[in-house]
Amino acid sequence: MQPATTVRQLTIEPLTKEAFQSFGDVIDKGASDYFMINNGSTRRYHSLAEVDVADEGGKPIISIFQATPLQYPLTVKMMERHPLGSQAFIPLLGNQYLILVAPKGDKPDPNALRAFLSNGKQGVNYHKGVWHHPVLALSDQDQFLIVDRAGEGNNCDEVYFTDDVQVDLALDSLEQAALTEAL
Ligand SMILES: NC(=O)N[C@@H](O)C(=O)O
Ligand code: NI
Fold first, then answer.
1. Backbone φ, ψ for residue 80 (5° rounding)
2. Highest taxon of the source (predicted)?
3. Scanning 14, 98, 147, 160, which has its CA 20 to 30 A from the CA of 90?
4. Nearest Cα residue to 144 out of 81, 69, 55
């Protein structure tokens, strides 16, 4: 007997530091303090996130992802985490993109998934061990600067949801999230 499929439609939330704080940092100049440097010519928005990659001798590296959007509405089939390090995504082209996360734990709870919309000027830094979906670009060949870990050990756990769980992510609530964020 095939177990009943529980279908959840995710609501996309505006990305704010407060809403995202249990998953990581929001790297957002618009919501951060600064101090002046370079003889008053430059604002320094200091230490917006920490790079936590030293476990098991890891080192920080900087990469660029060029991403192709997935098909929407998206049925979320898997989530991943990096048990040995944080992972930061900074948008390079100013395009909105999606972030999908779930709280730390042995496995991602499909009932605890949260979807957020970045306004394209906001980056995110997933804290070590936070479940997240691989990058969810909304613009073709979008580009992100990535700060994460290189080193020994397994730093990527993937969990695929079973057939009886279906979590859909539709873009129709994007407008709502974008509107709310704009208010
Ligand atoms: N696999 C990889 O480097 N990318 C993922 O970690 C991701 O979060 O997109
Ligand atoms: Ni990742």
1. -135, 165
2. Bacteria
3. 160
4. 69
Domain regions of the chain by residue span: 6-182
pLDDT of residue 95: 98
User: ipTM for the complex?
Assistant: 0.95
Q: How far apart are CA 111 and CA 170, in angstroms?
A: 16
Alpha-carbon distance values, 9 to 103, 112, 128, 139 (Å): 18, 12, 27, 22
Please, which residues bridge with residue 63 across strands? 146
Q: Is residue 64 within 6 Å of ligand 1 at its C-beta?
A: no
Among protein residues, the one with the nearest Cα to ligand 1's atom 7 is 134
Atom 9 of ligand 1, residue of closest alpha carbon: 134
Distance CA(150)–CA(60), nearest Å, equals 6
Of 121, 108, 41, 122, residue with least CA distance to 77: 108
Q: How far apart are CA 180 and CA 131, in angstroms?
A: 25
CATH number corresponding to 6-182 = 2.60.120.480
- Give the whole-angstrom CA distance, residue 85 versus residue 155: 7
Q: Is the pLDDT of residue 183 over 60?
A: no
* C-beta of 134 in contact with ligand 1 (< 6 A): yes
- Pull the structure tokens for residue 111: 């009932």
